[in-house]
Amino acid sequence: MSKAKAHPPASLTVILGDMLRLLTFRLSRERFSELSLGHLVVGVAVTWLVGMGRYWDAPEANPLQSLGLGSVAYVFVLSAILWLAFKPLAPDRVSYLGLAKFVALTAAPAMLYAIPVERFMSLEAAISINVGFLAAVATWRVALLAFFMLRALRFRWYEALFAGLLPLTAIIVVLTALNLERAVFEIMGGIDPQARTANDGAYQVLWMLSFLSITAAPLLFLGYLACVVRRITQRRIAQRRIAQRGVTQHGVTQHAASPKTSAEP
Questions:
Q1: What is this structure's pTM?
Q2: How far, in Å, CA of 148 to CA of 138, rounded?
Q3: Average pLDDT of the chain?
Q4: How far is 130 from 122, CA to CA, in rounded Å?
Q5: Do residues 46 and 107 make contact, with C-beta atoms less than 8 angstroms apart?
């Protein structure tokens, strides 16, 4: 992202308004460049609250999850992954801090996960609802990422497609390989009916996404690589043209400054 001019600290009302406009796809390109450290602080605070809410009724959650610290770490880890993917495409517009602000400000939709649907409906219904929550939040966040790439970073649509999906699929593949969601591989062998929980449907969706990600990752990488090569080639051509114009202008200046000679009679 381009360097922004100095602005006075934004009030909490302004920050929350910017968050709402971002979540509803209405934040302008100019406003993206004006997001402050206050936006990051508020976004991280919301992420922390959402993270605690997600696991408040999960006795199997580890301390990092229960305290919301895992969700806070997610902001900075995901920002680093996106920075690595986006920087080669737009080195003058991509900054780690700008990405961290964006990621933190998109945490609010995950509040849906805090609704304990299994408390007031049947297990089957709770599984369906949780799958719906997972699909809604994931779709919303991916759409916000595409919005950010197209508006704030000014990516072309195909660059947003490959650069956006490649890191997301890589994350899913790594999560599956590390078995961070414990039920992923249990589903592959069948779920014990006595051990079922309201999150089983979400685990099944994660397994399906893992399979699709492993399949799509090579194609996405090739597409991403083509976009990077194209951008680098364009930058080199532009630099060469600027250099050629400089040489031409220098030659014209020297010619104009040289003394004129006249023929002797």
A1: 0.78
A2: 15
A3: 81
A4: 12
A5: yes
